[in-house]
């Protein structure tokens, strides 16, 4: 049940005499987190439990043409919120949105223009944004916003590129390269280690994306401009509301996984999304060629049959199904995505799939979709398609942010699922449009076909970084497992650098309500562990971080209904993972355990009765993992 309390606490009008005002302090509901904003709007700082997290850091906008002059705090309007938001197809059934906030109104000397800063303090983070209520266009060169981490912390960072598919590395802020754009989230810890935090953004609607660059001891925000468009990075038709600048906070790096902060900074969905059905999908591209896949009714029906036999609700038909030429990354002008390739009857294929309980998803290049969005999507609905995977935007500027909003709304209107690839890092749009069910923007398993970057350490870094802000279409499920030393890069029928146990654990650890089962059907038949993949859910009622350190290991527990699922992964070191079951309710439970065997593709499957007093001992090989299902047993 949804409960909402929204209380405007006070409106404070400062004296017009020009008396010096105090800095504005917004404290979290538990009083442990404070966001402090200077009385002239020039800087902010963040502390938690009395410890500095972000030292005094610049605030402000860089307007094109007529910059804002000196500001003074004119008024403050406080607000408190505590509500429970029902969620659809994600990592939990509900999210608590609980904060104290304020809108600070700053007035410009002389000209009298006003800058509004909306600020919020949650128990697990802070956020702020800027607003201008102009009636005319606003041209913005950039923001003055920067983050000055207290001390010189060690942070997990990744360079920002078009597809947001780069590796993370751990560097101190002083070691970052000036001029290099770093992606969000940037994940750090205070020098004491008592607070771990992630700097990110939320709710980009009507705005543009951003990256962070080192300037001295600061991480300076840089807005993404439209390629080939000279002048300001952002132009509005009237007024301005920026994205939220957010800092997630927790005692441990893994506890950030549980946070709903990014979603809570986005509007709730409007309308009924109960039709959104999470689940797993068979997929044809990962095991096939990079380019040149042949459109073939028989091959498509083979994957449909596999999905039906396995109980998967979807099959994703990737590139080359459409009429005309189609390459890897560019939108060929002669390709027509409203017509299937010669010999393909898409409507008949959809009927064949539906008769077997399988829905079809189609791949398309975003340029082809953007050119005639309504016609394309209406055609797919007429065929009986259940969702689209749209690819290769590879940008996060104002135009592409607008495309995300339009495609999310257009697919929601037609009850189509949406999966974006070549995508920027999530900023919470999934909260507003739950049919936007997953996305890429991650260096995922597809790169096993091309290079060696999908290392055990990389796999153990993603849950603590990219996954903090939204679902990741990493595309797990590779069953041609190899040791890192024995791994070979190959385009067809690729390998992975993990054990079979880690392949299973990814389905619990990696958050993706639409989850690929990426390998060829022949790779799964009769193979150990496929029984777990067939039964593991993709959306959850509760998520709990149990233990782990970035790049080294993780144990994550997720619940659907009364059944709990555990995923345990390790990186470059084999380990015996001790897992306390204290998170379970009282009673007796049946634990079904899949853990690494003697060789990389072997599993040991065992069952035992356990209670919340027990500690599981899981044997994880190098680059290994384990998966556990915990089911309550009836009372005797």
Automatic annotation (TrEMBL):
Instruction: Report the top EC class in one word.
Output: hydrolase
Q: Where is the signal peptide?
A: 1-21
Do you know which InterPro entries this protein is assigned to? Answer: Aldolase_TIM, GH, GH-type_carb-bd, GH97_C, GH97_catalytic, GH97_N, Glyco_hydro_b, Glycosyl_hydrolase_97
The EC number(s) given in the record are 3.2.1.-
Q: Which GO terms describe its molecular function?
A: hydrolase activity, acting on glycosyl bonds
Q: Which residues form the Glycosyl-hydrolase 97 C-terminal oligomerisation domain?
A: 539-630
Keyword match Ribosomal protein: no
**Start and end of every Glycosyl-hydrolase 97 catalytic domain?**
295-442
| Ranges for domain Glycosyl-hydrolase 97 N-terminal | 26-266
Q: What UniProt keywords apply to this chain's record, in alphabetical order?
A: Glycosidase, Hydrolase, Signal
User: In its UniProt entry, what is this protein called?
Assistant: Glycoside hydrolase family 97 protein
Provenance organism: Pelomonas parva
